[in-house]
Fold this protein.
Amino acid sequence: MLSEQDGRFLLKLARETIEKFVRNEKIEKPKTYPKALDENYGIFCTIYKCKTGNGATNLRGCIGVPYPIMSLLKAALSAAVSACSEDSRFRPIREAELDKIKIEISILTEPKLIEVKDAEEYPSRIKIGSDGLIIEYGPYAGLLLPQVATEYGWSAEEFLNHLCMKAGLSDGMWKEKNVKIYKFQTQIFRES
């Protein structure tokens, strides 16, 4: 999908955008950027706060644009601002935290509907570590990136149940008749 150079540019852009937003500085679209960023892609910006000493991290924010509805450049700017200020699980990032965070960017392939005749087929259609998932059921929707299932060591069934919870649904709701589940893959870039 993207080159390493494109990924480094996106990480730098996300870092600068978050720092400017937190400091109430003007955020502007860069004058020059890789041509690949004109393409429409989904993107997520994940922010981790580093713990002192052992190098471990805690999630500090994760928001994105799941569908390729705008250029990667615009989506990256939006995701960076949202991840540091709009994730309802966390308070907005403060300036004192800026030197303690690490940023991860996930570029998403276009989500594809997983077509099944019976909901019991879903687990066999999911590749842990490769597939991210989106669930839609009436007004409810939720998304989990592929790295989440790997990080927690979930089976496909556990991944589906946690996806339901992320959407505000009960365990096992992925088996309901009118549920739609999509899968996608990601290309990940991380700050070192």
